[in-house]
Amino acid sequence: MQTLNKALPKWFRKKLYFLKKYKQGIQNAFELRYSNGVTEGMNNKIKLIKRVSYGYRNFYHLRDRICIIHGLIFAPTEA
């Protein structure tokens, strides 16, 4: 492994070390079309629902709310 030039600032050497360490993963992220964006989006929505729903009577109400938001259960509509 090559050593980094000591004349470079420490903050810059840390960045280069990071890039070297994760080079393969970074390269794969650019070349492959796979992403966990959908999963991260769902997790973000669930966390938001948990913050807003403080005070729900029980877990089942929270679970139902998550299912309604994600379209897994249809909420009754007023006619």
Number of E strands: 0
- The helix/strand series, from N terminus to C terminus, equals HHHH
| Mean pLDDT value | 85
**What percent of the residues sit in helical stretches (DSSP H or I)?**
55-70%
> Ranges with pLDDT <50 over ≥5 residues?
none
Describe this entry's structure for a reader.
- By secondary structure, this protein is an all-alpha fold.
- It has a domain at 37-69.
- 61% of the residues lie in helices and 0% in strands.
- It contains four helices and no strands.
- It has helices at 10-21, 23-31, 37-52, 59-69.
- Helix 3 (37-52) crosses helix 4.
- The longest helix is centred in the middle third of the chain and has 16 residues, at 37-52.
- It is elongated, with a radius of gyration of 23 Å.
- The N and C termini lie far apart (70 Å).
- Residues 10-66 form the Transposase IS204/IS1001/IS1096/IS1165 DDE domain.
- This is Transposase.
- Pfam families: DDE_Tnp_ISL3.
- InterPro entries: Transpos_ISL3 (IPR047951), Transposase_DDE (IPR002560).
Summarize the structure.
This protein has a domain at 37-69.
Detail the topology: elements first, then pairings.
Layout: H1 10-21, H2 23-31, H3 37-52, H4 59-69
Domain Transposase IS204/IS1001/IS1096/IS1165 DDE: 10-66
Pfam family, one: DDE_Tnp_ISL3
Protein name: Transposase
